[in-house]
Amino acid sequence: MLHLEKNKFINTVKNYFPVDNALMFIFISFLVNIIWAYFSIPSVNPYFSFSHLYYLHGDSLDYVSLAENAYSQGCWCSAEGPSDYRMPGYLVFYSIFRFFFNANSTLNLIIILQLLLSAISKYYLAKLAYKIYNNYIIFILTFLLFNLTNTVTFFNLILYTEGIATALIIFFIYTLYNYYNTKQTKWLVVSSLLFLEIFLLRPFMGILLPCTIFLLYLIYKTDIRRLLIHTIIFCSPFLIFEMYWVGRNYVLLDKFQPFETSITQGRNTSINSYSLYSQIVKDFGGNELSWSRIPKQVGLEIMNS
Residue 81 forms beta bridges with which residues? Predict the structure, then answer.
């Protein structure tokens, strides 16, 4: 009897909240993001107003100023000239809005975009869980749990790459899962473009490249020809960008730099997790620069007041 009542309740919930009603779940998630944002803003943005949703500080100064320089001057550069301190991941979103709006409106719209992408990603993460387990309860629990955490929303209120990258990683896994199940090339193409943007936002996520190639190997290990074709399809956007980026850095900076110059906060410490990380960076030929050596940016006419 209890089991029947439980099934009846679940079916009732399904009728009101069907898995495929994406707009409804995204609207609920976006509303939750707004509520979380309302309570989080005082600790994130001391200058908040509805015409000034963002607060430029820390890494966001680099992302935004380099993107503004690229848009206004046609140069991915700092005050000292061409730069490789950041990869141009933020430029993709910045330039779309900047083409139509001024810098202030662009940054406000990026904050809204981050909250929206987060809401969409929460739904698709829950839907991915539903596809894997074919269980409506798992779908609802995943959706609720991800919406009840404020960590991701917190980063969506700042002009950092963490918020957008988190959403794109979820989209990437979702599209790759669809490709795994359907073997439709369109899903592989979409996942390859998502991977490139994730890499440009957070270069250390390049680890997704060998992981995906290994997945392709598992799928096509008995068909080398198809393995090579699909590996080339997935890697092409990344390789095309890398050919440009490596060539650009060699010509303008006179060095081979396939990624970005690592920038870490300089500290006087004994052996700890930071110094171990520092040694790993140096062992692999990385350049470690203290934040105090980062050149100031130019071309940005936005104030935090």
Answer: 78
pLDDT at 305 over 70: no
* Radius of gyration (C-alpha) of the chain in whole angstroms: 22
CA atoms of 217 and 186, how far apart (whole Å): 18
Global pTM reads 0.85
DSSP three-state, residue 130: helix
Q: At 166, which helix (H) or strand (E)? A: helix 162-182
Q: What are the residues facing 52 on neighbouring strands?
A: 49
Q: Do 86 and 63 form a contact (C-beta atoms < 8 A)?
A: yes
Whether 64 contacts 56, CB under 8 Å? yes
Helix axes of 103-133 and 89-98: crossing angle, nearest 10 degrees: 120
DSSP state of 77: E
Residues whose CB falls within 8 Å of the CB of residue 154, separated by 6 or more in sequence, listed in order = 36, 40, 44
Residues 6+ apart with CB under 8 A from 266: 290, 291, 292
Task: Give residue 6's pLDDT.
Answer: 63
Query: How confident is the model over 188-197, as a mean pLDDT?
Result: 97
- Block residue for tokens 């410490």: 269
Beta strands in 30-143 (DSSP E): 77-78, 81-82
In sequence order, the 6+-apart residues with CB closer than 8 A to the CB of 240 are none
Which of the pair, 147 or 56, is modelled with greater confidence? 147
Domain boundaries, given as residue ranges, for the chain = 20-160
**Cα 29 to Cα 120: distance, rounded to the nearest angstrom:** 8
Q: What share of the chain is helix, strand, coil (3-state, %, to 5)?
A: 70, 5, 30
